[in-house]
Amino acid sequence: MSLVTTLAKFLGKCLGGLVAVAVTCYLLLLTVNWQDEAASERALDLKRQLTLKPVSNNGYQLYTTQLAQLGSAAIPELQQLFSDCYQAGCQSLLQAETETLQQLLAQQQQLLAAYQQWLATEHWQEPLLVSTDLPAYQPLLNGQRLQLLQAYLAARQGDSELAQQLLAADLQFWRKLLPQNRYLVSKMISVAAIEQHFLFASAINQSLTDGERPRPAIWQQPFSPAELSLELALAGEWQLSEQLIAKGLNESSELKLLQRLGVTLLKPLYQAQASSNERALLLSCEAGGQQAIAPWYHWAYNPVGKMLNRASKVPCAQYLSRLERLEQSRQQLVSAG
Questions:
Q1: Nearest alpha-carbon partner for 34 in 300, 331, 308, 310
Q2: What long-range pairs does 19-27 form, CB within 8 A, spacing at least 24?
Q3: Superkingdom of this entry's organism (predicted)?
């Protein structure tokens, strides 16, 4: 028997042995993953939070309806005026000519009127999403900039009462949104809008005399635990992850043959409810998202779900830190005024 033949037989046996080991391991994994878990209390709690009670005067619904009419085009002149509010104290805005600002407001009356309609709504109830398609938020943020610009012009012209009313309405609106946002993206948009409000207010107050400075009563109100909580937004993220994973596992018709085979083999190693339970625990941001230390072999149960959960882990500390800074910014604004 030649050396080549002997080597080929040896490699064949090795390959056959590896296949046998792989099949045995896969069958063992199938046995371990034979049954899914029951829903955990944490998962049930997140589900309860997402129960939609229809509301009237829903600002979100009004916004999405009017969005088609308003369009989502940028307003370069407006964005330029506010571009340095985070670094240089809104100098572009403060140095602009009054006539220039008035012309810009006159050109954007439709958006400003729509924004003031949104401010007047009682609720902001976002629907439960089945994909990551969110509406464009640029018109909403541009509407805020127009509102702040109108407040600045009123203050510059000596009408501090009107400036105060406009600022109060703006901050009241965004603080109303904070505890109602169902997703991290929309929650952080609300945070960004409140940050812009405080930075703008600090800048214009420095440019006015003490008697001219607007002082809305809402600036004196500390942020509540509900406003600074991520709980509802995390419940929304939990539900959206459920939808996206289910969609990814069930829609394999467009995949190539080997990819479909891989998905078919992996599906039994994904336990939907066990994954949901673990994801709910990982999304316990206010409690630190801590889990008991598990033995290494815990990965044998629901390995696909565990990997998916780790891949989409939420950086809780970053989000909570940014929320906490809102109260610090409010206090700084009040103390400076």
A1: 300
A2: 26/265
A3: Bacteria
Count of structural domains within the chain = 1
The answer to the question of residue 211 being in a domain is: yes
Can you give the residue range of the structural domain that contains 186?
Answer: 54-218+326-336
One-letter amino acid at 91 equals Q
Closest CA to 64 of 134, 14, 142: 134
**pLDDT range class, residue 256, cuts 50, 70, 90:** confident
pLDDT (tens digit per residue) in 116-153 = 999 999 999 999 888 877 788 999 999 999 999 999 99
Q: What's the Cα-to-Cα distance from 304 to each of 4, 23, 62, rounded to whole Å?
A: 41, 17, 40
Quote the CA–CA distance of 147 and 273 in Å, as a whole number: 46
Q: What is the pTM of this model?
A: 0.87
* Alpha carbon distance 22, 12 (integer Å): 15
Task: Identify whether 257 is part of a domain.
Answer: no
Q: Over the stretch 104-121, which tens digit does the pLDDT of each residue have?
A: 999 999 999 999 999 999
Structure tokens, 213: 């400075």
Please tell me the distance from the alpha carbon of residue 90 to that of residue 46, in angstroms, as a whole number: 41
Q: Which two tokens stand for residue 64?
A: 């999405």
Q: Which residues contact 52 (CB under 8 A, 6 or more apart)?
A: 125, 127, 128
- Distance of alpha carbon 285 from the chain centroid: 14
